Amino acid sequence: MDGQDTVTHDELREMERQYVLHSWTVQSRYNSPVVVTGDGASFVDMDGRRYLDFTSQAMCNNLGHQHPRVVKAIVEQAQKLCFIQGSWGCEPRAKLAKRLAEVVPMERAKTFFTNAGAESNENAIKFARWFTGKQKIITRYRSYHGASAGAMSLTGDPRRWAAEPGIPGVIRAFDAYCYRCSMGLEYPSCNLRCAQQIDEMIMYEGAANVAAVLIEPIVGTNGILVPPDGYLQRLREICDANQVLLICDEVMTGFGRTGSWFACQHWDVVPDIIVTAKGLTGALIPLGAVIVSGKIADAFENRMLYAGLTYLGHTLACAAGVAALEAYEQENLIEHSRVLGDRMLARLREMQTRHPSIGEVRGKGLFAAVELVKDRQSREPFVPFNVDSPVLGRIAREAKERGVIFMARWNYFVLAPPLVITETELDRALDMLDELLVYADAEVTSA
Ligand SMILES: Cc1ncc(COP(=O)(O)O)c(C=O)c1O
């Protein structure tokens, strides 16, 4: 008998503990079940326990588990050709790049494929630096751009601290976080001061030195910060006026997550570069992409593109990507994300009227946050910045025991289920959150 068939759940858990280094975790605290299969918005562990996943894993599993169209495409491609290096042509890569050029807002777009989000950001800033001949990159504090050396430096989130000093030339701005405006202002009378601040930063850093502004158009793990209307347009104007590129990191927000192909499209803003990964294949196989405008691509027509990865545009991954894009389109999943996202936000806003611990609900599409406060009047956060709350942890733990996975971080929950989730599943998870929020309400000092 195959030894693997006889291994127990406990033995596998122990092997994970003993032999694997787990990310963003104090290793001795790692204690997760072993997952064996999944379908749609849920997955199943070795004991047969089923979990409805309100996180899409790392907000990447947009098509849910084992999406049949993507699995079929991978199997069929595997039977023909698993891999051919990037210097050779291959059908899925060519088709995927063509399809991406059709769905992004830039004209004559071309794609440089990578394996993930961090690699995409690394290459995006390299391209921006070569194209402009300038060095500095402006990013924002509440951001995450990946865990490799450069991408970690672009990141504003405290996950960056352990990797500092990092690469030179990155300057961070404050965020478009209206609920906790860094300028102490209110929209719209603020006249988008947070965007104007970036203009001022470019002036002080020297427009002749700034290559790009790189942002998540809707901030992801740092709290689902949806910018106010006009913010992204203003950034576009500021970048144009200073000959600075606008790079949108759509690693998390791409492919229907927010109810459009890309989040920048909600405001009709055309970036110079879109960086993406995750939903590109629905996470069934790793794949990332740096999609550049025709203007940037032209610059490399007669000039060496000093960039490469052994597995760039991996054949199997691109086949998965082609099928994933077909699924988003033919199964109407982007519209589904918009419609169910509206339902989710409406339900969360109704919950806010009953739960004094909810300070703010925000989001777009199936991408939302519930931010908890100790005191609604003063907006005192439920826990200080960069501290995980035992109460949010307890809510997430009890939900997990009851079969629903929520992501709790600092003083907020991120809600981002796969786009294939059904209305019934959505309601089940929200009912559970509604019920469990009483633990947070009990800690509120004044309603
Ligand atoms: C906005 C954003 N950019 C980049 C990354 C990094 O992607 P990866 O983990 O695939 O390198 C992430 C990952 O969560 C992300 O959310």
Shape by Cα distribution: globular
CATH-wise, what's the superfamily of the largest domain?
Type I PLP-dependent aspartate aminotransferase-like (Major domain)
- Rounded average pLDDT: 97
Radius of gyration: 22 Å
Q: Terminal Cα separation, in Å?
A: 62 Å
* Alpha-beta content class: alpha/beta
Characteristics:
binds pyridoxal-5'-phosphate, 447 residues, 2 domains, single chain, 37% helix, 15 helices, Aspartate Aminotransferase, domain 2, Aspartate Aminotransferase, domain 1, alpha/beta
Characterization of the model:
The protein has 447 residues and is an alpha/beta fold. It folds into 2 domains: 33-66 and 332-441, Aspartate Aminotransferase, domain 1, CATH 3.90.1150; 69-330, Aspartate Aminotransferase, domain 2 (3-Layer(aba) Sandwich), CATH 3.40.640.10. Helix content is 37%, strand content 16%. A 7-stranded mixed β-sheet has the order 4-10-9-8-7-5-6, with helices on both faces. Strands 11, 12, 13, 15 and 16 form a 5-stranded antiparallel β-sheet that branches. The chain has a 4-stranded mixed β-sheet with strand order 1-2-3-14. Helix 4 (68-80) packs antiparallel against helix 11 (315-330), helix 8 packs parallel to helix 9 and helix 12 runs parallel beside helix 14 (423-436). The longest helix is centred in the C-terminal third of the chain and has 22 residues, at 333-354. The protein is globular and about 60 Å long. The N and C termini lie far apart (62 Å). The model has no long low-confidence stretch (mean pLDDT 97).
